């Protein structure tokens, strides 16, 4: 009996060793999507623990290959690890608020969207400082909007299912996201759909819009601020209240955008955008 147990343990150890590169791959994939301050070693530890647990719970008779079975569980563990982290460090959040305020002030003063150098001059920092801070915020925002899933439909099916209430909330949030994107001004919507959902190169989007790549970067920043604040207004008013828009034309445009999101549909229509499993419904 002990011999059989030892043999099973050895097989599990062999499976874990053989699939350790899978954890490294999934961690690298996630690090490309999150702010630079997220610790790689913390993610690896969570991923390896999930791999060991997957080896213990694997049942070959189910007909699912172990790498696919394990990948689903490792992704879930990495996501749980990120949810437990302070997503944007305090300094990143402070820089984001200062940048947003400077952008709004300059927009009101200039009557147009300010350039990155103009924002940097107002804040007394370099263009590189602004770009690095915005990259961190963009990654965090996109993660929160899209969630972390590069899995195929088959992978998702093998993941532990969410409870009915959790799935309903997730589907409503995805519906709000779709409506929030649809409600964006045309140029901002083209940038978001092309860059984040279509994974198109920025140069291609710039060519389509007839603008420079730096202008596309500005539009991307503007769109993500609108999306973040629009979703917070409807889904988490307490967060929205922490960064209220200033009076004036900028505040009026934002209020109109928030109204467009609400007018896009009802709870029923938002839920109709995904199936019971939370996957998008084909148009």
Question: How would you summarize what this structure contains?
Answer:
This protein has 283 residues and is mainly α. Helices cover 73% and strands 0% of the residues. The protein folds into two domains: 2-83, Orthogonal Bundle (Rna Polymerase Sigma Factor, Chain: A), CATH 1.10.1740.10; 94-148 and 184-263, Butyryl-CoA Dehydrogenase, subunit A, domain 3 (Up-down Bundle).
**Which percent range fits the helix content?**
over 70%
Strand content: under 5%
How does the major sheet shape up?
none
> What class do helices, strands and sheet pairing give?
mainly alpha
Low confidence ranges? 145-161
CATH overall fold name of the largest domain: Butyryl-CoA Dehydrogenase, subunit A, domain 3
CATH architecture descriptor name of the largest domain: Up-down Bundle
- Overall pLDDT score: 76
Count of discrete alpha- or pi-helical segments spanning 4 or more residues: 14
The domain tally reads 2
Based on CA inertia axes, which overall geometry fits?
elongated
Topology as a string of helices (H) and strands (E)? HHHHHHHHHHHHHH
């Amino acid at each position: 009996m002990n011999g059989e147990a030892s043999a099973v343990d050895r097989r599990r150890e062999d499976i874990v060793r053989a699939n350790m590169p899978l954890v490294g791959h999934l961690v690298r994939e996630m690090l490309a999507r999150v702010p630079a301050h997220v610790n790689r070693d913390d993610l690896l530890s969570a991923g390896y623990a999930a791999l060991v647990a997957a080896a213990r719970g694997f049942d070959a008779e189910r007909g699912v290959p172990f790498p696919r079975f394990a990948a689903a569980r490792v992704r879930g563990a990495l996501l749980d690890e990120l949810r437990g982290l302070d997503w944007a460090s305090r300094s990143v959040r402070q820089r984001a608020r200062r940048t947003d305020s400077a952008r709004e002030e300059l927009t009101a003063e200039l009557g147009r969207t300010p350039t990155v150098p103009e924002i940097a001059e107002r804040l007394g920092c370099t263009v590189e400082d602004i770009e690095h801070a915005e990259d961190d915020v963009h990654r965090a925002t996109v993660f929160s909007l899209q969630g972390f899933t590069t899995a195929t439909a088959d992978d998702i099916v093998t993941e532990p299912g969410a409870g009915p209430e959790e799935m309903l909330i997730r589907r409503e949030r995805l519906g709000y996201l779709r409506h929030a994107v649809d409600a964006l001004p045309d140029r901002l919507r083209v940038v978001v759909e092309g860059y984040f959902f279509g994974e198109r190169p920025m140069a291609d989007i710039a060519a389509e819009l007839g603008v420079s790549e730096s202008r596309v970067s500005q539009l991307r920043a503007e769109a993500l601020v609108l999306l973040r604040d629009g979703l917070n207004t409807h889904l988490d008013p307490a967060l929205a209240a922490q960064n209220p828009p200033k009076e004036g034309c900028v505040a009026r445009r934002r209020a109109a955008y928030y109204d467009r999101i609400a007018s896009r549909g009802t709870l029923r229509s938002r839920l109709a955008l995904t199936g019971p499993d939370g996957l998008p419904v084909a148009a």
